[in-house]
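Kindly review this protein for my students:
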Amino acid sequence: MKPARGAPPPASQSQADAADIPGRPDFVNSFVQGNLPVPATAVRAVSPERERRTTRPETVFVHLPAPAPEMKYFGRCFAYAYITPADAPCKANPAPAIRAAIGAALPALRYELQLGGHGADRTLRFRTPEDRKAAMARQPFALDGGVTVKLVREGETSNVRRITVETLVHVELRGYPRELRSVEEIRSRCNGFGHLLEVDPACFDAPDMAPVRAVVRTEHARRIPREVRIGWAAGLFRHVVPVRVLRVWDWSESLDANGKYVPIYGPDAVVPN
C-alpha cells in the first residue's frame, strides 16, 4: 500500500536495511570557511597513503541552492562558441573568425566575447536571452574553407551532466560538533552529497557531539558518504563525522496535494531559506 503524500517513508523499511547501501563513498571533504575556532575534537589532518592525491577521484559533486530568478536570467545570456575543424588556422586567434561568421548571418546582433570556458574557443555574453535565442536559431555559422562556428548554451556543454534528484535520504551525522550547529553550517557539510531540505529541530538543543539528523534530496542514496571529514585552518585540522543512513524514499511521497514538500519533522522542522 502506498503511503499518503507527505507521510514519512514506510515503517516496513528497517533502519538496518536502509543503512546497508553498497557503493557509498568512504568519505567527502568539507572545509570550514571563515575564522571559526578549531574545536577540541579536531585533530591534525593526516591522509593515509592510499588516499593521497594520486588515487583520489578526479570528480567531486557540489549541490548548490537553486539560483535566484535574476541569476537564471543572467545565465540565459551566455553561450559557448566552438570552431571546427580542430585544426582550423583561425583557432589560434578565434575572436575575428567568430565575429565574422556570426556577423555574416546576423549583422545587427550585439554581444561580448570573453575567454573560452568548458573547452570552447570563446564565451559569448549576449545582452538578453532573446538575443541568444536569435543566434542559436541561425547556427551553425559558416566561414570559407569549411570552417564552422557552433554555439552551445550554458549548461549544455559536453562536460556538464544533468542529473535528477528525486531521492530523499534521512541521514544522521554522528558526533557532530557544536561549533557548526547552525542551518547554514549543516548545509555546507551536506552539499557534497545532496540538497539540505530540513533539520531535526531537537539537534540545536542537544548536548555536545549529539547526532544531527537531516533530510537531503539527492540523485541516489549511493551519493551519501560514510564519513564527512570537516577541515579547519586550511585543512590542517580535521573532525570526522560518521554518516548513517536512516531511511530512503522517493521525493513524490513527501509532496502534498499542491506539490509542496511536507517536512517529516512537521511544522517545527528547521528548513533552510
About this structure: Residues 1-17 have pLDDT under 50 and may be disordered. The CA atoms of residues 52 and 155 lie 31 Å apart.
